Amino acid sequence: MSLLDEIEPLKAEALAALMAVSDQSSLDSAKGAYLGPQGKFTGLLKQLGTLPKEERPAVGKAINVAKGELEKALKVARDKVELGGAGPDQLVDFTAPGRCRRSGRLHPLTQVTEDIVRSFRKLGFAVADGPEVEDEYHCFDALNTPVDHPARDAQDTFYVDTPERPLLRTHTSSVQIRVMQEQQPPVRIIVPGRVYRRDTADATHNPTFHQVEGLYVDRGVTVGDLKGTVEFVFRELMGPKTQIRFRPHYFSYTEPSFEIDFANALTRKMGKDWLEIAGCGMVHPAVFEEVGYDPEEWSGWAFGFGIERIAMLRYGIHDIRLFYENDMRFLKQF
Ligand code: DAH
């Protein structure tokens, strides 16, 4: 066997001996047997001189590379002895194919969003999208929310510090405006997306969360259509026995406006008869005028609700922050 051919088998033998090290004496003997002055590996280096001159550089290099690996293994073995056997007992090859092939899964918020989208699709709604970095016009003005409205307060809203004062959208309602500016009625859309508010994080608040917006515009659309749609979707999402209730409320972009409460076994489990879940109403004529729709010809409804809220109820989660920590112990449960 040529010297070059001896390197790999000897290296493998030495690595096996070093990995098997369990205490100081086995460490000393493995080191002595291969890397010490009388060691087998050191012996290879000594034989280098017997090779013809032109073969020496290549073989010398191969020996040094292998020796480098052995020295790393020696260090691992030393650390292991020092730590009382607590170190890794195998050198890890991170390039090896995985032994355990588990597919990932969707985040619970994504799962709930997909369920919501699936229900609305059955009713003919399309998914629309808009920018998270918005301007005040789409987020507030066009939604009939004037400059002095508290929703625009710098306390509640993240503004970007540039002359145009863009902001992180505080609700998905801004996308209603963008869609209506782009297309003529009829409109039937939902908008799942991320929104931002200057809230400090606690069990039920987070500075960013997700909403679904809905908008339906056609001729002769009524509150009855709104109620029927919301009831259909919530029963699909939260069970067939879910009940819905509309309470009068105020939003500047709808008239009349309502808050939607719902009740089912989950709310009763929480000790509540009704739980507030969404805001909605008939699109305000001023909003239609702003986007160039004739309010005498068209009518419509809109709603918005929080996705986290639904996911928390559905899965019995009491702390919203769990959704954003990406702790595998949490995520694996869905
Ligand atoms: N934008 C409201 C919020 O963030 C929710 C909402 C209420 C959306 C009424 C609507 C609506 O489209 O008509 O709290």
Please state roughly what percent of the residues sit in beta strands, choosing from under 5%, 5-15%, 15-25%, 25-35%, 35-45% or over 45%.
15-25%
Question: Roughly what percent helix?
Answer: 40-55%
Order of helices and strands: HHHHHEEHEHEEHEEHEHEHHH
Bound molecules: 3,4-dihydroxyphenylalanine
The residue-averaged pLDDT reads 91
Report the top-level CATH class of the largest domain: Alpha Beta
Gyration radius, to the nearest Å? Answer: 34 Å
Could you explain the architecture of this structure?
This protein has helices at 3-19, 24-34, 40-47, 56-82, 108-122, 136-139, 174-182, 223-238, 265-269, 285-291, 307-315, 322-325, 328-331, and strands at 126-127, 133-134, 167-168, 187-196, 208-218, 243-251, 254-263, 275-283, 299-306. The radius of gyration is 34 Å and the shape is elongated. The chain has a seven-stranded mixed β-sheet with strand order 1-4-5-9-8-7-6, with helices on both faces. The chain has a two-stranded antiparallel sheet with strand order 2-3. A hairpin with a 2-residue loop joins strand 6 and strand 7 (254-263). It has two domains: 3-90; 108-331, 2-Layer Sandwich (BirA Bifunctional Protein, domain 2). It is an alpha+beta fold and 334 residues long.
